[in-house]
Design a protein that fits this description.
alpha/beta; 5-stranded mixed sheet; globular
């Protein structure tokens, strides 16, 4: 069995109100990460890869709060086999350390692996600007704004999450 970490980035948190995955990433056991964009010319090819990824029963999928990623994946028309092997690191942490103050990925990465999350520092100003613009215009405030971050910065952030 191969173990591959999986993560999605979305335009917001409301999958039934138009928010979608704009990119997803995988990281294999050796640490090789790949980001797949769904908002460009490779959309069709990357959607096919995403379906093939979920259909491959030799891969155990690992994610932090993976039910979120799976829900968005299915809303986009990707089917997930019932017997896929799936591991949720957030649920695992909640079970093993149920009285911990936090279960957030960035805090766990720092605590257990001393893995800094300074990638967030590069994108926070872009997200704040996006949120401020949405407040002024009266648009819904739960749009993530991550899709507005330049791909080069977003890829760095996303690879760190995966």
């Amino acid at each position: 069995m191969k173990y591959i970490a999986f993560d999605v980035e979305t335009t917001g948190f409301l999958k039934y109100e138009g928010d979608v995955i704009f990119s997803f990433s995988t990281t294999d056991w050796k640490g090789k990460s790949v980001v797949y964009r769904l908002d460009g010319k490779d959309r069709k090819k990357n959607l096919k890869y995403l379906q093939d990824f979920w259909n491959d029963m030799t891969i155990a999928k690992i994610g932090h709060n993976i039910k979120f990623d799976m829900a968005f994946t299915m809303v986009m028309g990707i089917s997930i086999p019932r017997d896929a092997e799936i591991h949720d690191t957030m649920v695992m942490h909640q079970m093993l350390r149920n009285i911990a103050q936090f279960h957030a990925l960035d805090k766990l990465a720092l605590k257990y692996y001393n893995y800094p999350v300074d990638q967030d520092d590069d994108i926070k100003p872009i997200i704040r600007k996006h949120k401020a613009a949405h407040k002024i215009s009266g648009e819904r405030l739960n749009a993530s704004g991550y899709d507005l971050v330049p791909a080069k910065l977003m890829d760095k952030y996303q690879i760190a999450d995966t």
